[in-house]
Design goal:
Chains A, B, C, D: It catalyses: urate + O2 + H2O = 5-hydroxyisourate + H2O2. Chains A, B, C, D: It is an enzyme of class 1 (oxidoreductase). Chains A, B, C, D: Catalyzes the oxidation of uric acid to 5-hydroxyisourate, which is further processed to form (S)-allantoin. The structure is a homotetramer of 318-residue chains. The first copy, chain A, is an alpha+beta fold and 318 residues long. Helix content of chain A is 21%, strand content 35%. The first copy, chain A, is built from 5 helices and 13 strands. In chain A, the strands form 3 sheets. An 8-stranded antiparallel beta sheet of chain A has the order 2-3-4-7-8-9-10-13. A two-stranded antiparallel sheet of chain A has the order 5-6. The longest helix of chain A is centred in the last third of the chain and has 18 residues, at 215-232. The radius of gyration of chain A is 24 Å and the shape is globular. In chain A, 57% of the residues are buried. Chains A and B meet through strand 1, strand 3, helix 1, helix 2 and helix 5 of A and strand 1, strand 3, helix 1, helix 2 and helix 5 of B.
Chain lengths: 318, 318, 318, 318
């Protein structure tokens, strides 16, 4: 194949970013016989002075994605992984400050939680008493998310989670809605409300001079508020439950300015058992068909008054 | 459970949308013994005057998501599915014009292509000669995408595709890049370039008064230009190939103003066979390890000069 | 289309089975304000006198798969779901005893576990003290499995689980293996051992006259033994760990005669950080790359002496 | 951690196998400017004299799974990949004949098909006329499967495919079935019949002295017969269609002795549009809801008379 002459520029380059996605890094630390795990999936996206690589293929400004992968591993060893957010901050700062053509770095991290096997004899110190300080089972609930963006001046940190599946088996109704010529839905006075939570929350912290939040504590508390709001809200609609989940976070967590949720309404339909002479009554305990598709999808942002909305509208692609 | 009093309003509602996601509708049409399939996955997102349902749970403005699902099925029968884009336009117009509280509708559609079984005897009329006009095999390559947004005045139509996997087995190199203390990558003079294309393109058409594009023809041609640009570009970097794919569309398809691609660099690493006394040379035909993760991720927008960028930056969530 | 004459019989029918797969049934029971969930995915496979439906398309012996689905829902209401195994026994007996052409029924069940939200105030009675007795979060670890087969005379019950991800961060080595001309692997003196457990165990119970095991207690205990064996075995090879997991079940659970495991060796490779002047030493806490593919796959059966092996050899399709 | 003494032997080891699963190997060959791709996912499972590694952790008989991976890559270079079956035969023979403790090898291969981009100018020689002989798009339909088992004496070759999605939009009915107290299904006189084919077929070839089949030609023809039987059978039941698919292969392909299919009945339900004043009539072209779960699952073996059934009963795990 003959190498062709480089192409001309008939169309304009817009926003662009590049980096290594999904670097799977596991950091083990040892505290005597007691080990600790941080299990991350790190994606790097860099932007800056990158016109030439698009227009002519010149890589003179391109730090290879392979290098961004190596940096993730090296930083995990050199600086450890105190929290996903902290790790993202260290990485983003490095890329923006060490490479002149790079003006902006965004680090996205998925974190998988592990818990100890056989902690029954644990003495409250976090050290298992039974010699299994190095044995773990993956927790398996939500995937924790962290996103750090840095442009050399301001920080934006958005934390979150996905795939946290929750259900209220009562305490939910759906009535009084609009009807048009395509409406056949029956009102529900006592329904199951189930969803798989996808949420993001943005921190007010933007400046190195400010004290940073305790990222681990903030995550644990935010998750707990979200779950409690879901459990304790008598629900007239999933929108209302969503708003309560967001509002409770804003009310209780001063470090957070904005929350966005994408909540599928995971329909649990009462099965019609009348043809078989059975009454499928909720009060008595009922049988439901858990449907896959289609599903309602309820999405909204809840903001601290006076704050700007910056989390993108679509957390999923459907 | 006691129904609690409705909550107060300590936090502000931001952008919100709701609707039924992933309604799987298959529309068969019969032209004598020759049948035609449109196989869609339709997601509806409605926005408007929806404060109350979030703050108090009042559904007085809420058309149920179940109704949006019914509407999809009814429209598929009543108006047919000429193209995914046309179908989305009909649906979006309906929701915005028929429901006062709804100010904006966005319809997202995935389309799965089918081809005929046993068309060997086809006579060019599209009618199979052998009595199998009702038998199909799913094409299985890309998923076609269409997104229609309507606010009562302007239309925005974004088409696209995902999961179109392509490979150049030569005609790609990667050299002359930046090196820092974390760089170990060797230059590649003849590498495999493979990716799974995720692309979106926005049409200039915004107004009912303008003639609408031929959506089916536009898709077929755009896909073809994209593939040809991938195949015919000698690649110094995946960024350059991406730009050529976008630029070729802008150059050849007047109806399209903006293109965005998200291209994973699906690494095919040359296996080191030296320990076994084998030279794994590309010129001679080589053996590659197709890696899963991590992967480079290259994303960019290509715009017609003078046009505004409106396609969101992140087509995927990593 | 003309309905053709029915085909002749040039080839012989072998083993066959049919039924409705993946009926998603959720059974809620109410104990005052405290609710309980059983969340199942039930697949029915029936066999018997089914030659004609294959040879000629006569459905005279075919109970529709839709009916087997209805039966799952009706039984969930009428008899409840004490355990997946018990539910499977009731269903299998029904199909074999109520339909003359059906000679054998196999019921496969996946079960998803839920735990309560906000049980901190629970008083040990299983009743949450705080009014959230109807709020749940999906546990998210393993999927529990049950398979019941009945031929009108004997029962076979196989329980199990899949997708239980575990890790030992030390206590594992791999040395002293065979070397041939394709061997390049370095010995490992202190490695991470991680796997995603897929296991099945067969009960000795086969006869209605025998007392049946306590299925729930048996599952909980078997899972615990499996985890403890994984955690407490110093591992010279994953084969040895697998055997200890199976043997410990056989040793402690008299009701179980046979165990089979399929254990991927989920490789965690020590990252080479030497090029960056960093020593990535395990004793000091190390950084690993968690690889996706390829992976070792270790599979074996462990049997109570004198018992027959009946669990199929391949639990997965790779 | 103290290394414990090696465990005693209270339970018996049964069938066991091990090896590297899912080695992703891509073999490119060059015929001038025209390249050819073989894209495989290879899983090796070895059995033999392996008691000690399970009982005591001694690896003295264990060829590392890493070595089996290396062997896959080295063989792909040294011997090429003429067909997946041939490649599996070479590998299986190598492991069994070169390692004394290994008595049996099973090689499972998934193959992904690619087609050329821009072959419009091709001249029938297989060489594209337009300089894009190295550019490919992944075909995306079925995954081709091959499984080779060797015990040092006899060969067993099973080929197959999965995820081939097909649909007849008419020419199918379902009537005359058994009714019991749980039956509510209405008879269907003109329904959509759709499935995602999972099939396996076993060759009569077992002996190196016999001439081996042309594996590529056999696959292409078998796939074609399967599709034609699906398309051309007026279907009274999916069982009947399945049998015709298998029987046609047995009738036309002498090299094949046994076929097994697992066919989900991918339900396309006619949507009830009567509430909206629309008649959803099949004769006129209709609208269907394509359901995910549950689905009928129809599985059967079709045998050449006098041949033994050896393909396992369950091709999937549900």
């Amino acid at each position: 194949m003959t190498v062709p002459s480089r192409p001309s520029r008939p169309a304009i380059l817009g926003q662009n970013q590049y980096g290594k996605a999904e670097t799977r890094v596991v950091r083990i630390t040892r505290d005597g016989a007691t080990h600790h795990i941080k299990d991350l999936n790190v994606s790097v996206a860099l932007s800056g002075d990158m016109e030439e690589v698009h227009y002519s293929g010149s890589n003179a400004h391109v730090l290879p994605t392979d290098t961004t992968k190596n940096t993730v591993y090296a930083f995990a060893k050199e600086y450890g992984v105190e929290s996903a957010e902290r790790f993202g901050i260290d990485l983003a700062r490095h890329f923006v400050t060490s490479q002149e053509p790079i003006h902006r770095a965004r680090i996205r991290i998925e974190e998988y939680a592990w818990e100890r096997i056989g902690t029954s004899g644990a003495d409250g110190t976090g050290h298992p008493a039974d010699g299994t300080g190095h044995s773990f089972v993956r927790k398996g609930q939500e995937t924790r998310l962290a996103q750090v963006t840095y442009d050399g001046e301001d920080w934006e940190v958005v934390s979150g989670l996905k795939d946290l599946t929750v259900m209220n088996s009562t305490g939910s109704e759906f009535r009084g809605y609009v009807r048009d010529e395509y409406t056949t839905l029956q009102e529900a006075h006592d329904r199951v409300l189930a969803t798989s939570v996808s949420g993001r929350w943005r921190f007010g912290w933007t400046d190195d001079e400010q004290p940073a939040p305790d990222w681990e504590e903030s995550y644990a508390q935010t998750r707990q508020h979200m779950l409690r709001a879901f459990a304790e809200t008598y629900s007239f609609s999933l929108q209302q439950t969503l708003y309560r989940m967001g509002a409770r976070i804003i009310e209780h967590r001063d470090e957070i300015d904005e929350v966005r949720f994408s909540l599928p309404n995971s329909h649990h339909f009462l099965v019609d058992l009348e043809p078989f002479g059975l009454e499928n009554d909720t009060a008595d305990g009922a049988v439901y068909f858990a449907a896959d598709r289609p599903y309602g999808l309820i999405e909204a942002t809840v903001l601290r008054e006076g704050c700007e909305a910056r989390i993108p509208v679509d957390l999923t692609n459907l």
